[in-house]
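Workshop exercise sheet. Pairs work together: one partner reads the sequence aloud, the other fills in the structure field after running the prediction. Swap roles for the next sheet.
Pair: D.N. / O.F.
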Amino acid sequence: MLKALIFDMDGTLVHSDPVHLQAFAEVLGPEGVVIDDVVFRNSIIGHTNESIFATLLPNHSVSEHEEFARQKEAAFRRLATELKPLDGLPELLDWADSKGIHIALVTNAPVLNATHMLGIIGVAERFIVKVTIEDVVRGKPDPLPYLTALERLGIEARDAIAFEDSPSGMKAAKGAGLFSFGMLTGLTTEVITAAGADCTIADFHDPALWDILEERARA
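Structure field:
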């Protein structure tokens, strides 16, 4: 029986990728690193900051990577003031509440970003479990963040559905044994399906989503 919906944040709850791209460009531009759509898709989306800065600034030290990451996340929070929830999210959360289905967050973002973004889009109080990068020793694509959420929820993987928009996030969700929807906010159906998505949807109004939710909720 469906007991929980577990969401990634960036690109899933909210289409925040353009703001992240802007923040990376602001911080890394002076270092001669060009952040365009290709770099963002290949080296940033779904990756941890540790991985991102090691890839983009290979000649810098770990401590320098950490400082660049701090600057980037601060820039993101400064820029991300007018974000809106992805279409259909409020209705989906209301439906889950009416069915007694728990809501959880699993993100590679730091807790400051998660708190900021959930507040901006007005859904912070809807999430009973929030797993951020500080909560785990290994971020996505490792399944540990999702396994941590399942443990905190007190449920099995078969009782939950995940929502992800990146290959690394999808690999993490599938590695934890979750039925997973791939969000088409930044990547193609082919890419997210190749990463393991069971079904792809454009937003939370998609009929394909509701067919599966209603079926799982009745099981």
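Discussion prompt: DSSP finds ten helices and six strands in the chain. What would you look at next?
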